[in-house]
Amino acid sequence: MEFAEELGFLKEQVLFKGKIDAGRRFRNVVIAGMGGSGIVGKIFSEIYTEKPVTLIDGYSVPAHLSRDTLFVAVSYSGNTEETIKAAERAMQKGCRVVTISSGGELGDYGDQNIHIPRSDLQPRSAIGYMLMPFMEGFGLVDAADIKEAHKVVESLDHNNQECFAHAKRISRNKKIPVVYGAYPFSSVAYRWKTQFNENAKVIAYCSSFPELNHNDTMALAETYRKDEFYIMVFDSDRKEIKKRIAITSRLTQTKFNFIEFKGKSLAARLFYMIHYGDYLSYHLGKMRGVDPTDVRLIEELKKAL
Ligand code: PA5
Questions:
Q1: What does the pLDDT average to over 228-252?
Q2: 264 and 174, same structural domain?
Q3: Atom of ligand 1 at shortest range from CA of 33
Q4: Which residue in 104, 129, 219, 262 has the most C-beta neighbors within 10 A?
Q5: Is the model's pTM score more than 0.90?
């Protein structure tokens, strides 16, 4: 399957009906996942604020895991070593363990196992399958939101000229992509960074307002080879963030390339922005002549461990 076709499959995924069942009462949520699977934990933890959420992107689990913990192991393949180890430790601690995978070792490991119906995608292209169980399970979407999310995702495809134009400007001058987001989409800025890494095979950087004002501001004005960075900023409808973006650009004399959201609901805006970054990184990869699906060295590393 051509990678653009694989990306286009996101619109079906937002309709996925898998749903985390929290089971008994829980006090906190702990999510384990790496890379293209781990990102869903980051996104969820930014938008879910009712109970504490801890993310694990390694082997160790926090000491506070208990029978009151809802533990979610997310791994598209179901075979990622760190995630399996973390799930085993959670099971030993008596947590309720939910897995989200397309099979593998984690496929039937948990108290609840959510099965992704396709195992032929790149993990990062299955973000809808892995994120929707959180959105549905924790009541973060209703039917109207899902309908809107489906519509805005469908409105984007690989022919989108805006995505193409940004990629062209990055590739023509071999620039380093920099992505600036803001709550509740800081994690989407991170997703863009990782999509640039994996699909376009370039090092990229991300940060978020207002935090970046406390570290990047002076650097924006005085860093080495400033013209080698291509800075993209997610537009924000929050007054205080808009103001910061404008002042930062003026004080540091930096050109920001704005990326506009589409949609009204959180789910629509979230999935739209995710998808926009998918196509932008896809085009950059194509312009660079690299294969977005090539994960040769990641696979080699996993085998060598
Ligand atoms: O996008 C990718 O291919 C990687 O970042 C993988 O997601 C990562 O290696 C973890 O594998 P999995 O998602 O199967 O747990």
A1: 97
A2: yes
A3: 15
A4: 129
A5: yes
pLDDT tens-place string over residues 36-55:
999 999 999 999 999 999 99
- Domain range for 230: 145-288
Number of domains in the chain: 2
301 pLDDT more than 80 = yes
> Which residues touch 28 (CB under 8 Å, ≥6 apart)?
51, 52, 53, 54, 64, 68, 69, 70
Asked whether the beta carbons of 107 and 113 are under 8 A apart, the reply is yes
CATH of the domain at 49: 3.40.50.10490
Name the DSSP letter for residue 293: T
Residue 92 backbone dihedrals phi, psi, to 5 degrees: -60, -30
Domain termination site, one of 119, 140, 161: 140
d(CA 269, CA 66): 35
Return the best residue to mutate from 80, 100, 119 for the ligand 1 pocket (most ligand atoms within 8 A of CB).
Answer: 80
For the CA of 37, the closest atom of ligand 1 is 13
Do 37 and 135 share a domain, yes or no? yes
> How far away, in angstroms, is 124 Cα from ligand 1 center?
7
